[in-house]
Sequence to fold (248 residues):
Amino acid sequence: MRQTVAAGNWKMNKTPSEAKALIAELAPLVKDAKNKVIVCPTAVCLPAVVEAAKGTNILVGAQNMYFEDKGAYTGEISADMLLDLGVTHVILGHSERRQYFAETDETVNKKVLKALEKGLCPIICVGESLEQREQGITADLVRMQVKIALQNVSADQAKTVIIAYEPIWAIGTGKTATTQQAEEVCKTIRDCICELYSCDVAESVIIQYGGSVNAANSAELFAQANIDGGLVGGASLKAADFSVIANS
Fold:
């Protein structure tokens, strides 16, 4: 049985002191959650959040990392730096990274390989734009993103990754894919992994839905056969809302 995972992507929000306060508010609300709970603050907030989350069931993820161990890469963060802080997960290939910061399928793959090499769990984001959905190429595009992201990833490694399906047109817009649309694409992702590796591997992979997940729709989404939780944006910044999602 796959565990449901509720991960909060805080994006570029919260100062370190605000982040610490949010964890203090969230921790008692999710202490009995059967789902895995992850929060992903900005890099400058990671030390404060890791410290605040000690002794709780909240895991901490980063929003990005680089694929080299060290060097002249101004502004970048390595896997070793994240591990030294106590980070366990890292979001890779988010559509905002692809759209605003020139992330490509190939760089996502390099980052996935480095994360797995170092023992970080990658949360790999895939998803289509509204134009691509209207063109009818959602399945083809998402399959391509999954295949490139997992290139040179072994079957045993693949079992440990999390894949987040995030339709770009539903991120931060208030629009949400229908439950049927979300389930359909998540099943496409699982079928693709089955073809790449085996159905045993595919059944082990956690596949999340992301895109305006909120307290009102999370239970219905998470109840679907191929949706194993959510990568949550705005709602993860409110302890009350995120706790409902984490307990869905």
About this structure: The longest strand covers residues 121-126. The mean pLDDT is 96. Residues 38 and 64 are 15 Å apart (CA to CA). The two ends are 16 Å apart (CA to CA).
